[in-house]
Amino acid sequence: MMIAVVPIGMGLTAPISGALSDRFGSRVISLIGLLIVASACVLISTLTADVDVVGYLARTAPLGVGIGFFQSPNNSAIMGAAPRQRLGVASGLLALSRTLGQTTGIPLMGALFAVQVMAAAALPPGADVTAAPPEALVAGVTGVFRTAALFILASTALAAFALWFDRRGRKAASFAERNDAVSVPSGSYDR
To answer: Does domain 5-180 have CATH number 1.20.1250.20?
Structure first.
C-alpha cells in the first residue's frame, strides 16, 4: 500500500494539470511539474533507516504529484504539435519514448544503486547487495535520488529556456505585427 502513493498522486493530479495546461499553456505547467519532481527527489534522498510510514509518505507523495503535473501537459504539447494526419505516428513515438525511458532509466538507476551500496558497505565486486547493512542500502537510495534530482534539474533548466525562448519569439512576432499595422504605406507622403 505504501508503494501505491506515487501512482495515486499521479492519478489525482493528472486531470487537474491537464485542465490547467489547457488554460495556461503546457510549457508553464510542465515546468511546475518538473520542479515538483526534482523537489520530491531531493526529499526522498533524505530518507533514513528509521523513517516511519508518515515520513515515507510525506517524501514520496510529491513525486506522484509532480509526475502527474508534468505528464499531462507534456503529452498534450506533443500531440498538439503533430499534424492531424500524423497523430497516430506521434502517439506511437510518445509511447516508444516513454517505454524507452523506463527500460533504460530503471536499470541504470538500479546499477547506480548497486554500485553505491557496494561502495558504502565495502562489499567485493559481484556481492549480493541485499546482504548489505541498512545504512548502506539507505546510502544507495539517497545517492540514486540525488542523481535523479540533478538530471531533472537539468531538464527543468532546458524547459525554462524553451519557455523563455518561446515567449521571446511571441513578443518579437507581436511587435513585428504591430509595426506592420501602423506602418505608413510608401508613397503616401508624395509632394
So the answer is: yes
